[in-house]
Amino acid sequence: ELRNVLEQFPPVEYAFAYGSGAVRQGSYDYQKASKTESERPMLDLVFVVANSEEWHSMNLLLNPSHYTSIIRLSPREISWIQDSIPANFWFNAYVQLKSSTRQLKYGIINKSLFLRDLNIWNNLYAAGRLHKPVNVVRDNQEIEQAVAMNK
């Protein structure tokens, strides 16, 4: 299921899923949630991209409904906001997958900023996500080396 999700987005360098929608957790009632797909936990993903402005430009063409309609921002503005806030992420939440009724939340981060957080823990937002169990969906050798050092 997770690899099929990536087909709905522009290319990414590295991707992983985290949280109760991707990794079984003791406190969640999966028996109850398995009865209907809409009761399943939201799927949380992180996409590490080479250039967030280019990625958002492509994603706005492929998936315009994923972005807020309250205020329309250009890919340059989205990327600037993303890179300017301390966590260095842009999140799109409550996204409906095309292939199911399951909801998705995904965060985008530039590869250089992701690696910086893994290597020097400048804000521990990205690095902290990887201190917990995750499912890697798209692998990258350079990032995997940094992930190993992060643990």
In what order do the strands lie side by side in the largest sheet? Answer: 3-4-2-1-5
Give a count of the beta strands, DSSP E runs of length 2 or more: 5
- What structural category do the secondary elements indicate? alpha+beta
Largest sheet report: 5 strands, mixed
- Helix share bin: 25-40%
- The overall pLDDT, averaged over residues, is 88
Number of helices: 7
In one word, what is the shape? globular
- Classify the beta-strand content into a percent band: 15-25%
Radius of gyration: 15 Å
Low-confidence stretches: none
What are the SSEs and their pairings?
Layout: H1 2-6, E1 14-18, H2 30-33, E2 43-49, H3 52-62, H4 75-84, E3 90-96, E4 103-110, H5 111-120, H6 125-129, E5 134-138, H7 141-150
Helix pairs in contact: 3-4
Describe this structure as you would to a colleague.
The structure is a single chain. This protein is an alpha+beta fold. The protein is about 35% helix and about 20% strand. The chain is built from seven helices and five strands, in the order H-E-H-E-H-H-E-E-H-H-E-H. It has helices spanning about 1-5, 30-35, 50-60, 75-85, 110-120, 125-130, 140-150; strands at about 15-20, 45-50, 90-95, 105-110, 135-140. The chain has a five-stranded mixed β-sheet with strand order 3-4-2-1-5. Helix 3 packs across helix 4 (about 75-85). The longest helix has 11 residues, at about 50-60. It is globular. About 30% of the residues are buried. The mean pLDDT is about 90.
Keywords, separated by commas or semicolons:
36% helix, alpha+beta, 151 residues, globular, 21% strand, 5-stranded mixed sheet, 7 helices
